[in-house]
Each structure stands twice: as C-alpha cells, then as structure tokens.
C-alpha cells in the first residue's frame, strides 16, 4: 500500500509540474504585471496538494515581478475557463463590460450554449427547444 501511495504522489506531482510549466510559459509570454489564471478539473479541485504544487512550481518558473493568481473555475468542461478568468479580471479592475456577453449572466448563457447545456428553468419549454433549433434567442 505504501508503494501505491508513493507512485500516486510522484505521478500527481509530475502532473502539477507539467501543468505549471505550461501556465508559466503563457504568463511569461503575456508579461502583464498582474494576471489571473482560471483552472478547471477534478484533480485541481479535489487533490489535497495539487494547488500548492502548481503554485510552488509557478513561483519558480514565472519571471520575478509578475504576479499571478490561480482561481478555480466551475464551468464543468474547461472550455470557458480562459473566458471566465478574463472576465473576472475585468470585473475586478472595475472595467465596464463592453457587451452583454461580459456580464456574469451573459457568460453563463454563452458557455451553456457552447456546451449544449439547457438551463434548468427552460428544460421543459417548447419555446426553448424551438429557439435552440432555429438559433434565435
């Protein structure tokens, strides 16, 4: 049992390091003074040390002077993680949304449309099905 635990720890740590390397290369390329990174996934969410390992490795790999923050996004598929992080950053900076898509409700509608998710209040609505088929909102 101890061997299995050690193997799981090594594999998890390696995964965190590889993810951090990818994130660090993007952060170093963007070079904004303060950046927010949206992260999604079960491992990041439920593993007790994963966030710590990713953050620790990012501190080693990201250029000094660049600040970053990792936030857990909950969109379920990961397709909207970058969009949610960008919008959260704009909202945090007090920048007014440029379109209705940039409001939290608009983002949810956009992500749900992309992922084929039917909102709970419209699941049994014939009008919603008709709108979905015709592409009208």
Automatic annotation (TrEMBL):
Hexokinase C-terminal domain span: 3-87
Keyword Nucleotide-binding annotated: yes
BP terms from Gene Ontology: glucose metabolic process; glycolytic process; intracellular glucose homeostasis
Enzyme superclass (EC): transferase
Example of a GO MF term: ATP binding
PROSITE patterns, per database record: HEXOKINASE_2 (PS51748)
Family: Belongs to the hexokinase family.
InterPro entries, alphabetized: ATPase_NBD (IPR043129), Hexokinase (IPR001312), Hexokinase_C (IPR022673)
Keywords: ATP-binding, Glycolysis, Kinase, Nucleotide-binding, Transferase
GO CC annotation, single: cytosol
Region (Disordered) residue spans: 94-123
Designated name of the protein: Phosphotransferase
Enzyme Commission number: 2.7.1.-
